[in-house]
Input
Amino acid sequence: MAEWPTRAASAADLPPLNSLLTDSCEAAVIPSAALLADAIDRDLVRIVESVSELVGCIVAEMPSSGHVRISVVAVREGMRGQGLAKQLLMDLVEEILRKSSEPPLISAVARTEQLAVTCLLLECGFKGTRVMHVSGSGSGLHIHYQYKSRMEYIDPDARHLVPVTDHAQLTESLSPTDHAVTGLVALGGQPAFEIARFEQDDPATLQSGEAAAGIAFSGSILAAITFLLGFAFSSTRFPDDVRLLLIGATFSTVLSLVIYASASGELARIRSNSFGKIMKWGNVLSEYGGVFPFLISLPVTYAQASGDPWTTMILAILLSVSIAWYESSEFSIAQRFRRSPFEIALMALTAASPTVGAALVASSATSWPWTAVLTVTLALRTWLYLFRRGAEADVAERRTWQKE
Output
């Protein structure tokens, strides 16, 4: 199915937008002129055109800073069935999440007999979470759908089907907070909702475990760096610049431990909704200030201990390849942030550092330039991820503490 380009509506689009809504929608669901103008001002209206004609639109409203409600999706009759509505909805959701530092709840309400709207919402990542008792709504039930911005897990053994027309059973099935509509299927030739139960996790427990894992990891790295630093000071041939690199790694790792401890305090008593930001600092400092300097210094240490340039270079090359693989894998901290060509170049310098450093030390050449370049590279990466990038992907705040 072809992808249709969409764009944000402007005030100049109001006349054709009103015409489209009038031709394609019931009068009861068309937003008022004031609401439509406000939605355009807030960039909550997207449109799609074909041969300079407006053929589709989506309108939302923001009753509060933490909630966006989809008001209407309209497509001209001759253009339906081509994916325009899905493209409009997905583009609007993506734009809302991209512009918000704290992603708002994105919701919609659809009647049980609106099967096309229900399919659209379910295909775009929305889940029906509850029955809305709307007065004067006729025979159909209103289902509240919300976009799931984070991953949740369905219990595969706790799913059942409810016919769309069985309103009593549907109301009962959606009464528990952990049940939701996840699909629309055919049952006996008639439409039916698939109701699934989501696993309920404890956000506080998950965050506590994450903080404890960070503390344990940084503590282990600190012990290893301290051991290596002791060897560096006991060896008269160990390069002074590498000693300074290890001292910096020790300081950065201790700082990450303090930050992880602050995350535990935030979780236990402060509750200012800064857990994710604190953990990002600890993760970045422990990796680029502790782990990488420690790993890159290993071939240098081996070169001093063994005096064998061949095995030193084999170890260094293997370590460079391992770092390059790690950086491109899903386990890397860098994978949690958006990348640019400049960052890719810094990653390449980081991966090449063990080989270059070992070659310089093994050949008794001056290693100060290499240490300086490595320090600047890791410092730049730390600065980029801490100050030029947002939150780590998929680790947004799981709980928002509210003060009464």
Summary: The CA atoms of residues 288 and 378 lie 6 Å apart.
